[in-house]
């Protein structure tokens, strides 16, 4: 079965327009998998057919309908699938096409987006930018659950500061999601931790780095090595600054040392 994405803009919003398109698809034996509004005045459909010729005939006929304008007719991309599922497109940076922007109110969409990435096989390096308590780590964990993947923290400040220097048992599995905090890893003086990070980076698996801009400082990696950069904000105008983040990590180090000490294992 072949899947295709069809998006059109309504030129004349007359009664029965959607029914006419659905009837045409039915006559050509093309199934509608999902349909939703994806933008103001636009509808998107995921279509499925047994043969390419069915979709080709539909495209030829629908392009002659004067009350709509065909905007997209292609094999579905990840953004197309999520747009139909959630009713809107993910915001993408105009200059850097691998950077995607979300606000906290869109956590459901973000989790869905990352889960689709996590379902892919092989090496993928994902960076997440965002201020404290915006939901970065929680979103990664939720996306791992949605993708039915096990997640492993190599460095983190989610509960207490954690710095791993070895993996155990099935943690070496390439089906796992490896998560690290770029600030914690950059500041770690544990050479075994740094060696573990280098080994993890060479594994054909999914890696998620919080604060990627800090991670690449004083390291052999650069921001161009990332396949996806995700920016998560409390609101669209929020500025992501690293002075606050580094200060929070420093204070966290002091508090944990004074009270119970961080995990290092």
Describe the model:
This protein is of the alpha/beta class and 265 residues long. The protein contains nine helices and 14 strands. It has helices at 17-27, 52-62, 78-86, 107-118, 136-146, 182-187, 191-202, 212-215, 242-259; strands at 2-10, 31-39, 42-49, 68-74, 91-92, 99-103, 124-130, 151-153, 155-156, 162-163, 177-181, 206-210, 228-233, 263-264. The longest helix has 18 residues, at 242-259. Residues 253-263 have low confidence and may be disordered.
Secondary structure layout plus pairing:
Blueprint: E1 2-10, H1 17-27, E2 31-39, E3 42-49, H2 52-62, E4 68-74, H3 78-86, E5 91-92, E6 99-103, H4 107-118, E7 124-130, H5 136-146, E8 151-153, E9 155-156, E10 162-163, E11 177-181, H6 182-187, H7 191-202, E12 206-210, H8 212-215, E13 228-233, H9 242-259, E14 263-264
Parallel strand pairs: 6-13, 7-12, 7-13, 8-11, 10-14, 11-12
Antiparallel strand pairs: 1-3, 1-4, 2-3, 5-6, 9-10
Helix pairs in contact: 3-4, 4-5
């Amino acid at each position: 079965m072949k899947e295709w994405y069809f998006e059109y803009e309504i030129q004349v919003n007359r009664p029965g327009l959607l029914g006419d398109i659905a009837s045409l698809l039915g006559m050509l034996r093309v199934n509608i998998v999902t349909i939703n509004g994806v933008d103001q005045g636009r509808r998107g459909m995921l279509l499925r057919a047994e043969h390419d010729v069915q979709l080709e005939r539909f495209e030829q006929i629908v392009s002659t309908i004067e009350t709509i304008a065909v905007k997209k007719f292609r094999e579905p991309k990840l953004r197309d699938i999520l747009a139909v599922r959630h009713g809107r497109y993910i915001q993408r940076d105009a200059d850097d096409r691998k950077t995607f922007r979300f606000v906290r109110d869109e956590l459901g969409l973000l989790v869905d987006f990352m889960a689709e990435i996590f379902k892919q096989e092989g090496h993928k390096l994902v960076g997440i930018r965002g201020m404290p308590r915006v939901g970065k780590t929680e979103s990664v964990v939720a996306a791992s659950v949605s993708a039915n993947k096990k997640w492993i923290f190599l460095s983190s400040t989610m509960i207490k500061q954690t710095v791993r220097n070895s993996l155990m048992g099935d943690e070496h599995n390439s089906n796992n999601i490896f998560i690290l905090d770029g600030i914690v890893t950059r500041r770690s003086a544990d050479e075994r931790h740094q060696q573990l990070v280098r080994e993890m980076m060479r594994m054909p698996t999914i890696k998620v780095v919080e604060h990627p801009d800090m991670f690449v400082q004083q390291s052999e990696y650069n921001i161009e090595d990332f396949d996806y950069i995700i920016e998560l904000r409390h609101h669209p105008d929020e500025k992501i600054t690293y002075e606050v983040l580094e200060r929070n990590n420093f204070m966290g180090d002091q508090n944990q040392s004074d009270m119970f000490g961080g995990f290092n294992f």
